[in-house]
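Backbone geometry:

***
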Amino acid sequence: MNLRSVHVVVPAHDEEQRIGDALASIRSAVDAVRRIHPGLLVSTTVVPESWLLDHVRLAVGHDLVVRRVSPEASEIAVETHAEWGRRHSTGALHVHGANLGFRLSGYDTVGGFAPVREHEDVLLVEAMQRHGLPWRVGTHVVTSARRVGRTPGGFARYLAVLASEMDGQARIRARSAGATHLWR
């Protein structure tokens, strides 16, 4: 399987404040590699300069590379970021369109993205796995910790729910410590 080209898809929706950094990081990654492979990256994700090169190396012999993401630590509470880390350190597969790469041939084999409002990334990965296409877990990037996203149930919603859970736990701990004056 030879890689002849890479296409980086950057769907953008209300990301004006972060898209410049995302595009600049992609330009640096493109400059660092000469051979290319299709991929999906959201406009709130900033990638390391080696991102495309790492992806190309990982993609050899694979139709799909599911790469890890984590939310930008400076954009969420310390407790929420720590809980994210605990929940995502188990080795279980977590699919995020913010860092997903696939061969166009594999994408075409499964009929592409399902015409759904959300979770099209998860459905694509599941379809490629059902078809027995070779895949692997890849490198890591940091993406926006925004709580309002393109869809009602995607990554942003997950972070909003996680933050709410962490806030609720903090309130319970504070109440049990006698600090009820914080919530009047």
User: Anything to note?
Assistant: Confidence is low (pLDDT under 50) at residues 34-38, 179-184.
